[in-house]
Amino acid sequence: MYIDLSSIKILEINIFILNKKDGVIKSEVSSYRVQATGWIREYEEDFLYRLSHKIELITNLKVRRPDNKGPSEPVESEAWQVGVYSAGGLYLPHYDNLQNEFINADGVHIGNRIATAMFYLSDPVGGATAFPKLGIAATPKAGSMVFWHNLKLSGARDDLLRHGACPVARGIKWVSNKWIRNYIINSINSTKRQN
User: Fold this and answer.
1) Closest Cα to residue 182, out of 146, 148, 151?
2) pLDDT for the residue 99
3) String of b and e for 176-188 (b: at least 16 CB within 10 Å)?
């Protein structure tokens, strides 16, 4: 299965990492990630909405909004991330879960990344997704999906799921990630909005 990305409206292209230091956001060229990324909201492309539904059926996790209306903040899951790695492109080992709790301007907890569904969209040479602590790696094959839980049932990060993208030896590696979040809950800070 190949996806024609030429008809999809990309929200953002990012080849930099945004680091927040001392309350100031600045762009820096990444020393641990050689990849270009873009974001596509599923409610803008019916195909992605249907694919999110298939992820729900496979994983038994809530991934999409029932009405396909887009929220301004991630709730069930984040926008689809599309990543492209050229020859030599890599992403050093990392975790997908977020380190902080995220509460939007309305005082709503938007949750952590409890799981990752990653789709391979091309067949490069190299570019495997390696899980060093597990001693396994997934080889990119267009149309295949790799799925894992980022958190244990307790909510703690699963340290075994540190993973990275091995360098692409030849060709272009296209991937798409769907990060699934905790269910929406009201924050204890939500009463602050009334004051």
Assistant:
1) 151
2) 77
3) bbbbbbbeeeebe
5-194 placed in CATH 1.10.1060.10: no
> Please, what is the Cα angle at 42 between 41 and 47, to 5 degrees?
140
107: tokens are: 């005082």
Supply the pTM of this predicted model.
0.76
* 108-161 per-position pLDDT tens digit: 667 789 999 999 999 999 999 999 999 999 999 999 999 999 999 888 899 999
Q: Are 129 and 120 in contact (CB under 8 A)?
A: no
Question: Poorest-confidence range of 22-26, 40-44, 187-191?
Answer: 187-191
Burial of residue 21 (number of CB atoms within 10 Å: 0-12, 13-18, 19+): exposed
Q: Please tell me the predicted confidence (pLDDT) of residue 29.
A: 53
The first and second tokens of residue 17, run together, are 């990492």
